[in-house]
Amino acid sequence: MQKIFVLPAPMDVLFCWSQLGDADDLKSRFSEATNTDTRFLKALQALRGWANSSDRGVYHPLYAQYVTYVADPVEVRKRLEQLSIRPGFGARSEKAKELLAAWEPFPGSASSGQSQGDLDETAEN
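RE: above sequence
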């Protein structure tokens, strides 16, 4: 899994794995590969996409929608929030803050931690 994170387009590989392979195996391996805080932050950095808009220019969002392929986005966001305020965590705390700032919630979601399942339930009610 660590080799995937350093590829030029790691999400391409992860999407293929999820679509054509065993999605549960992917999530399990991602969990194992991100068992330390440093690996977790590096993995999320690798999951960032890119976007361009007239008001922001080029930026690199971390889409909650993409995170769902490898982990529970609500849990990922909670872990990032905890890491961002951890005393004595230094540069890793700053990296967690950067990833939180880059977090893009599900389209149409008012809550940045809301999952697609939550959105589906809301739409049904």
